[in-house]
Every structure is written in structure tokens, then in C-alpha cells.
Amino acid sequence: MQKIKVSVDGVVFGYFEKSALHILLIQRNIEPFKGKWALPGGLVHDDEDLDAAVLRELQEEAGIRPDFLEQLYTFGKVDRDPRNRVISVVYFGLVNPSYHKLHADTDAADARWFSIDQLPELAFDHEAIFEKALSRLRTKIQYEPIGFNLLNTEFPFSDLEDLYQTIIGESIDRRNFRKKIMSYGLLDETNKIRKEGSGRPGKLFKFNKEKYQSLAEKGFYFEIK
Amino acid sequence: MQKIKVSVDGVVFGYFEKSALHILLIQRNIEPFKGKWALPGGLVHDDEDLDAAVLRELQEEAGIRPDFLEQLYTFGKVDRDPRNRVISVVYFGLVNPSYHKLHADTDAADARWFSIDQLPELAFDHEAIFEKALSRLRTKIQYEPIGFNLLNTEFPFSDLEDLYQTIIGESIDRRNFRKKIMSYGLLDETNKIRKEGSGRPGKLFKFNKEKYQSLAEKGFYFEIK
DNA sequence: CCAAAAGTGTTGGAAGTACACCCATGA
DNA sequence: TCATGGGTGTACTTCCAACACTTTTGG
Q: What is d(CA B124, CA B132) in angstroms, rounded to the nearest whole number?
């Protein structure tokens, strides 16, 4: 009789303008690792699909529902949980934090955004899980337009530049980047303008998801860099 | 108390020269789906890592040990197994069939290669799993040099061409393809020649894995098409 | 008028694509 | 000598990379 338990965990990335990338962590209020920070997650119910389980856990532990969510990898080393054998199906999500207020709920003492370069010590093998998610994000943002899930629905071009620079971690030529993105015709211009801060105000754009999907079906590939 | 069981399955691709791509299937000799063809796999032992479990199952059910093996996706829909809730961590593998003779062993009545365009009806959701694996193979072969695992260690250039054409499913310009591959400097020329069949014999090449790995660490990207 | 960010074009080089002929072998 | 597949070069086009000045706004 098999004794393995199945859990799900979520690595949810959020981006705060002109700042580092963040991930969502919860503070455990049960043993083991009580008091430590960890990725939100928990055991899958017997009558619940895996996707549903992550959505539920994210809801319960942080009150959040990501705009983008997909399966990342399944971690199953024998000793990754000190109590029992637990394998974890990990999902990778993106949200715009300004649209989602966190509230820790069941099972979590607290839920917070942490800058990825100032993470606390994490429970279990969550450090390794995070690394894998980050590397997936870095790769994937270069060939699928998923970055828009991290921005406001209407954003100035410079937000997009900053986002890519932050995630990829190198500086990009503004002019070439803009030309490339624009050439895909996936951004609709709004007639709004952002006038925050100093300098010339920028036009706001909107990502046209429908257009991307119809192009993608015809074999179009998004690609940056 | 959670009742979910954890299994692993493997989608193992094999390539037979000048022929379609094949996958390895086993014939079930227990219910459910007794007598039907299915992907090799089975329940994970309590004290066994996931990778070890797939390797064991492939060994037990087909007597095979793939040259390349990596995790593909975890399938966990509630009703995918008629008996109990079973989630399956699926791996995706590549072998050169001429180096591995199949022999069905424990749990399997038979093990055979099937051409991917003449697959029998499959047990469980294995059809969907296969589709996902195939699409991963098609994508991945274009940006990682994994195709060499499907060929003989020493192969004439035309085998590589055929392989890519078979997998991607469109015809490639021989001259440009060769130029591209050669430009990476990852193929070592042997001084052997293949004289099978008619026509001018071709030189045999060997993929230089070490060289690829050292380049990859320095940020080199393999890319075809 | 100064500071700050937005907006825009041109040019040279590299890489990709299209394309056709000669070569070595066995029958 | 013919049929079969192996081996190679060139010209055109497209894409990418490098690069700097002008515009709009607020203070």
C-alpha cells in the first residue's frame, strides 16, 4: 500500500514598477517549519484536479487568483519532507500585485511579497523550486508574451522595457526593443497618457490578447532578444 | 486521509532510419484495460525517487534504459483512472532502438515499437499524454541538440537530415541545414564511411557532447530553423 | 531654460534563404 | 554510362545591432 502524499505549490511572481521582481510567500503556522516562510500550497483533495487545488490553496492562503498559471515541474525526492513522503506538483503564476490585495487566511500566519533578491530562508526544498521557476520565467518571457500579466492592463512603453530589463537582468536598447515589439502589432494604442513623475508623459498601450492568440494558431512566434 | 496514488509513465521515442518516428508501448496483462496497449509505467515505491521509478518501470516492462530522459508533465485529472485517483508524473525519453532490444517482463504481456502514425487505441488518457510528448519533442529538438540520442553514435549527415524532416514534418534545404549544423562545430568527423545502399558513400560524424556542454555553460544556444 | 523621460531613423554587418551543379560509388 | 545519393558556393534579402538627436512636459 503506497503511502505517498500529493501536494501542490505555487510560485507566484509579482512585479512592482521600477523595482525588483517579487514572489509571494506565506508564513507557516504549523509544524514542520512553523514560523518559516514558504511557498503557498498544500495537499490535494481526493476529488479535486491539480489545477483546482493550486487555485484553492492560493485563495485560502493568500487570497489571490493569478492571471496566468501553468504547471512547472513535479518535485518528488524521497526526503523532501521530513515527516512523510510528499511529492509536490508545482505551478508557476504571474499577477499584477496592484490588482490583488493579499490576505493571509486559513493555514497561514501571514502572506507577503518578497523581493527575489532578498528572500528569507525557505521551508522544505522551496529554495530549489523557486530557482527553477525563476529560470523558467526568464526563458519563457523571451518567447511568449506572458509578461503583460505582470503589468497594468494599460501601461506606458517604459514599463514594459523596465520589466524585461528587470527579469532578464541586462539592459536593452530602448529603440530596438520598441521597434521589435511594435512590429508584432500586438499593442493597441489607447488615447490615454500617463503623466506621473517628471519628463514627457507617455502614451498608454494595451496588450491585444485575442490578436496574439489568433496569430499564434497560424504559427506566429513571439520572440524577444 | 488522502487516497491519491502516484505513478510514473514514460513516453519513449525511437527512430528507425528512413521511417516514421516510433514510441514504445506495452500490452497490459492486468485489469483495467487488460490486453490494451499503454505507455510503460506504474506506481512509485515509497522509498524511490521519481526518476528512479521511471527507470525501473522501463527496465521491468520493456528492458530498456533511455539515453535521454526528462520530466514532461504531471497528469492529474480526477477521473483519469477508472479505479482510484491516480496522478501520473510523465517522463519523456529518447533511444536509438538498434542499441536496445526490447523484452517484455513483469507486468507486461508484450513490448513493441509503434509508428506514431499507426498507434493502436491506448489505455487511460495515454493518447493525450502522447500528444503532449510529441509536441514537446518537436519544439525541443529545435533548440537543444537532443536528436542525436535517436541516431547511431556515428551517422552520415543524411540521417540527421531525415530525422529532422521526420520529426518537424517539413522538408529542409539540405545545403543550408548542413551549413547551419556545421557552423556550430559540434560534429566531429570520423574517417569512416557508410557504403550502404546506392550512391556516393557518406562520411560518418559523431556528436561532440562535451563540447556542446562546455559551450552551453557559456551561454551558447543551439537552434535549428 | 533646465531636467527628465518619450519618441523616432539610418546604416553596416550578420545571418538566413533560395537555388544548381559536380562528385563518388555500384550496378 | 547511368542511377543514386553525397558534397559544395554564391547572390539576394531580411533581420539585428549600434547609435543620437528632437519633443513634450513640469518645475
A: 15
Distance from CA of A68 to the nearest CA of B (A): 18
Which residue is associated with the grid cell 523558467? A136
* DSSP characters over A155-193: EEHHHHHHHHHHHH-S---HHHHHHHHHHTT-EEEEEEE
- Per the listing, cell 505582470 goes with A150
Could you give all domains of chain B from N- to C-terminal order, each with its CATH number? 5-141 (3.90.79.10), 151-218 (1.10.10.10)
Binary contact (A76, B3; C-beta < 8 A): no
> How confident is the model over A163-213, as pLDDT tens digits?
999 999 999 999 999 999 999 999 999 999 988 889 999 999 999 999 999
Which of B28, B43, B18, B29 is closest to B165 using CA atoms?
Answer: B18
Cell of B183: 557552423
Interface of B with A in 42-81 (CB under 8 A): 43-50, 71, 73-74, 76-78
Q: Give the distance, in angstroms, between the CA of residue B110 and the centroid of all CA atoms in the same chain.
A: 19
Q: How far is the CA of A104 from the C1' of C8 (A)?
A: 47
Q: Has this prediction a pTM greater than 0.90?
A: yes
By the 8 A CB rule, do B68 and B94 touch? Answer: yes
Strand D contact with B18 (CB < 7 A): no
pLDDT of B147 higher than 90:
yes
List the B154-156 sheet strands across, edge first. B154-156, B202-207, B187-194
B158 touches strand D (CB under 7 A): yes
Q: Is residue B150 a contact partner of residue B142, using CB atoms and an 8 Å limit?
A: no
